[in-house]
Amino acid sequence: MPANRSSALRRGLAVAAALPLLALAACGYGSESKDSSSDQKVAAGSEKIDGLDSVRIGYFGNLTHATALVGNQKGFFQKELGATKAQYATFNAGPSEIEALNAGSIDIGWIGPSPAINGYTKSDGKSLKIIGGSASGGVKLVVDPDKIKSLKDVKGKRIATPQLGNTQDVAFLNWIADQGWKVDAQSGKGDVTVVRSDNKVTPDAFKAGSLDGAWVPEPTASKLVAEGGKVLLDEATLWPDQKFVITNIIVSQKFLKEHPKAVEAVLKASVETNKWINANPGEAKAAANKQLELDSGKALPAEVLDPAWKSIQITDDPLASTLDTEAEHAVKAGLLEQPDLAGIYDLTILNKVLEAAGESPVDAAGLGTS
């Protein structure tokens, strides 16, 4: 990282640590993790990859992490890892997964773009690499139709986002600015009152009438609709080709350097899982919900699961240009000093896997490892 930017970036990242800035609420809540290892048996005659007894995979019990949910439930990862055991841990917040990755408690993880940005910049580009994509979309502005009938009616209302500085909070602040309205990013006060509310309590607050709407990820958005809300805006419509990153795959740089064959096996399983999901959406939705129930203790009801699933696109492409744009929006909102994201992506292995599968390579938008 350039020396003349390091002190300014450290100041910005001090804010990141305190909030934690940009921790993707679509990924969950809190800081706990739990073992989510499956009981899938290793196939007879299989060999260990890179001599490893296990590969430790982290993800969140959330539909935006459908690749990991389905890959675990259907055994795709275990199949590719052979006699190396696929071990899983579920997390409730981006920072806790980054901490686990840095501590060596997990090797590879599914995570939102903003925690990945934080983890990379706070370590001066030494902790992790984004090695693949997983999901796009699944974020909506849902409102009380009795109080808000058009986008202009949002002015003067109380709208929830999951957390100060998280990905949806930044997106909403950016949208507010585009309307020409003013809001203080830290307090949330202004032409719109931005209420930072945990996604687990937002539906009840909305039902009670203390919120007029929320800019939230799935499945919270569909939970609000089930409580009588109306989708006023799908964030996907604000992005080119209606695609923006919501979940990426990260790996510790140490593990990537020492065990590239294991990383390749996980990425191959990810590509195979995504292909199966897109070819079998009904079965995949059921598999994701079954694993979600195992991980969280509660499956999603059909009235929430079905619309939430439809709004999420499963993809191998990390949609790198949109990650860069999300960082720019955070800078514009005054919540982050300009980060140096050069080298955050290493898509070498993924593109090798895609080529072998007859698929087109993906691009790092100028932010890849040189």
Automatic annotation (TrEMBL):
Family annotation (PROSITE patterns): PROKAR_LIPOPROTEIN
NCBIfam families to which the protein is assigned, alphabetical: SsuA_fam
InterPro entries: ABC_SsuA_sub-bd (IPR010067), NrtA/CpmA_ABC-bd_dom (IPR044527)
Cell compartment(s), UniProt: Cell inner membrane; Periplasm
Record carries keyword Repeat: no
Signal peptide per UniProt: 1-25
Entry protein name: Sulfate ABC transporter substrate-binding protein
Transmembrane segments: none
Gene3D superfamilies documented for this protein: Periplasmic binding protein-like II
